[in-house]
Write a structure and sequence with these properties.
Radius of gyration: 43 Å
CATH class of the largest domain: Mainly Beta
Number of helices: 3
Distance between the termini: 58 Å
Number of domains: 5
Number of strands: 57
CATH superfamily of the largest domain: Immunoglobulins
CATH topology of the largest domain: Immunoglobulin-like
Strand content: over 45%
Oligomer: single chain
Largest sheet: 6 strands, mixed
CATH architecture of the largest domain: Sandwich
């Protein structure tokens, strides 16, 4: 496989470290061994620093397995047993990625048994051709065929006896001396096991009786599948006529014309068959009387899997879409398997095999590494490797990955619309309603009316109350005590220096049923209360919404419990406008509610574009009297709000502006 482009690392003045993607120098080869015998598989890769590991049937092989020893790129099976047979692959990996080799099949050598012979007596005419059929038993590897003729072994063809590739025996120019006993035998070259036909055949030789002729083998048409570039012999054993009267046709044309085929007695042979040699071959025999007989071979030349257009190295930005192309050929048509760093690529919405390629959408850093296309058609394997490199610092236009969902809510309910987006740099999130940009302010929420006062007869309409909370690439729009004025279309917008993307949602508000208690209406996404996260720097940890209560409810609770309701806490010493590092001690008023948390809200004022950044929340435990704001932008102005909270509600709000020099 061709190596991918190297990666250069600058180590210092005058020194460069070059990282090459791994590639194979040699891959393991299939092996057949007898039970208990040793098997050695070799694998080597470059650069030499690449680490070699092994897979057995697709699973990582434990180096501590009994009967297996692994040393560098060599795997040794000390004693083969059925559990150790199967598919073996080596994996080469380094800091750039990993690749997997073509599989090597390790199998145990076997030799089957002979079946019963169909004919025990065979006849042949003197000075003609004799034929002894043999059904060779299954064998791995292929068995060597031998014959025991009148008690003597024949291991190879002679001038008078031809052991055909099929295992059958052809006797040329039969004489009376050829009569007698013939037994076919099969020899396994790995196990050295020899099996002989139990009964064999007896050949009788007759004197020529007539001018009749026959095709002794094959007796009917044959479908033959052969591997490309292998030697092939199309057998045609005839009696009653000389070999010179046997003709071969390919698709009804002379098979010898303009081809690499040649005659071998009455047979047709080729040393290396080519895919273009596929077709129908007929052995045609005739006599002086004009009688014609024929038998046909339907030859299908199988081709190893091959890749005509392989993978190319690619360098892309985060979030981009990548297309690897892998054009494969072979007979039968190969299957494609995709690997990423030696692991199979499972189809998903982001990793989608398409025709002759693999499409990767929205690439992340985890998608970097080495990709392989492996073509397999059971005849052979082919593979191509390409590297995917991700540029971390390039920009990317925002993409909204979670759009706000349209909602239908009850008048007076609490509503949350959420929106998430990606992009490089991380996009700024903004919300719009039918009036334009929504610029929420915590003071709006802190001064909002309770829901029950809105529901009472004669109550006044609520002013629009919005609150936006945002973190990197994520934003939520909260609407407290929604009214008909809030109904309509809302737009989430994600913006960075490379572009803007928007997504819309529709809010439908239905009237509140007056005979339904307000407490039974479930908000669509209730905010967290102060009993949740009390960490010192819990950014975006809660939405500062009052408990839905009223003076009537408070009085009811006081009468029921017999205890007085504590006053709202107050901040005794507000911080100066340009300094917020220290919060002065505050009092919780009377009762036991002193020391409850303070909520601080801050946002950056961006004078460059005339827009205001999103509000962020910091919650300070009551035991602390200091607030730290970190990671503020240089040369920026920040607006800060603080409010102390207790079970009775919020106290007075402190409002300050903080330049970066004061942080």
């Amino acid at each position: 496989a061709r190596p991918s482009a190297p990666t250069l690392w600058m180590l210092g003045e005058g020194s460069v470290l070059i990282h090459l993607a791994p590639y194979f120098i040699s891959e393991p080869l299939s092996a057949v061994q007898k039970l208990g015998g040793p098997v050695v598989l070799h694998c080597s890769a470059k650069p030499v620093s690449a680490h070699i590991s092994w897979l057995h049937n697709g699973k990582r092989l434990d180096r501590n397995m009994e009967q297996i020893k692994i040393h560098q790129g060599t795997l040794t099976i000390l004693s083969l047993n059925p559990s150790l047979s199967g598919s073996y692959q080596c994996v080469a990996n380094n800091s750039i990625g990993a690749i997997v080799s073509s599989p090597a099949t390790v199998s145990t050598a076997v030799l089957g048994d002979f079946g019963s012979a169909a004919k025990h007596v065979v006849t042949a005419e003197e000075k003609s051709t004799g034929f002894i059929g043999c059904k060779v038993p299954d064998s791995d590897p292929k068995a060597e065929v031998r014959y025991k003729i009148r008690g003597k072994w024949l291991k190879q063809s002679t001038e008078n006896y031809l052991i055909l590739p099929s295992g059958n025996l052809q006797i040329l120019n039969v004489s009376l001396e050829d009569k007698g006993s013939y037994k076919c035998a099969a020899f396994n070259p790995v196990t050295h096991e020899l099996k002989v036909e139990p009964t064999g055949r007896k050949l009788l030789v007759n004197r020529p009786s007539s001018d009749d002729f026959h095709i002794l083998h094959p007796t009917h048409s044959q479908a033959l599948a052969v591997l490309s570039h292998s030697p092939v012999t199309l057998e045609c054993v005839v009696s009653g006529v000389p070999a010179s009267q046997v003709y071969w046709l390919k698709d009804d044309q002379d098979a010898l014309l303009g081809s690499n085929w040649r005659r071998l007695y009455s047979h047709l042979a080729i040393d290396s068959i080519d895919p273009k040699d596929s077709g129908n071959y007929s052995c045609v025999v005739g006599n002086k009387s004009g009688d014609i007989k024929r038998v046909t071979y339907m030859v299908n030349v199988l081709e190893n899997a091959s890749i005509s257009k392989g993978l190319q190295d690619q360098t892309v930005s985060l979030g981009a879409t990548v297309q690897f192309t892998c054009e494969v050929h072979g007979n039968p048509t190969p299957n494609r398997t995709w690997f990423h760093n030696a692991q199979p690529v499972h189809p998903s919405p982001r990793h989608l095999p398409t025709g002759n390629g693999l499409k990767i959408s929205g690439v992340t850093l985890e998608d970097s590494g080495l990709y392989q296309c492996v073509a397999d058609n059971r005849i052979g394997f082919a593979q191509s490797t390409g590297r995917l490199e991700i540029i971390k610092d390039s920009g990317l236009k925002p993409v909204i990955i979670t759009a706000p969902a349209s909602a239908k809510v009850v008048d007076g309910d609490f509503v949350t619309l959420s929106c998430n987006a990606t992009g490089v740099p991380v996009p700024v999130m903004r919300w719009y309603d039918r009036h334009g940009l929504i610029t929420s302010h915590p003071l709006q929420v802190l001064r909002s009316k309770s829901r029950k006062s809105h529901l009472r007869p004669g109550g006044f309409d609520l002013e629009p109350v919005y609150f936006i909370m945002s973190r990197a690439g994520s934003s939520s729009l909260y609407i407290q005590a929604v009214t008909q004025e809030h109904a309509g279309k809302y737009t989430c917008e994600a913006t960075n220096e490379h572009g803007t993307t928007q997504s819309e949602a529709v809010l439908t508000v239905v009237p509140f049923e007056t005979n339904t208690k307000a407490e039974t209406v479930t908000p669509s996404d209730p905010p967290q209360n102060d009993k949740g996260d009390n960490t010192e720097a819990g950014l975006l940890s809660s939405f500062p919404v009052k408990e839905r209560s009223s003076a009537v409810d408070s009085a009811t609770r006081e009468n029921a419990s017999g205890a007085s309701v504590p006053d709202a806490p107050i901040i005794l010493s507000p911080p100066p406008d340009l300094h917020i590092r220290y919060l002065q001690p505050w009092s919780g008023g009377r009762g036991k509610d002193g020391g409850l948390p303070i909520n601080a809200y801050f946002r950056e004022l961006d004078d460059g574009v005339g827009l205001v950044g999103s509000w962020h929340t910091v919650r300070v435990p009551g035991s602390e009297n200091e607030l730290h704001l970190t990671e503020l932008e240089p040369s920026s102005l920040y607006e800060v709000l603080m409010v102390a909270r207790s079970a009775a509600g919020e106290g007075p709000t402190c409002h300050a502006y903080l330049p970066n020099e004061q942080r």
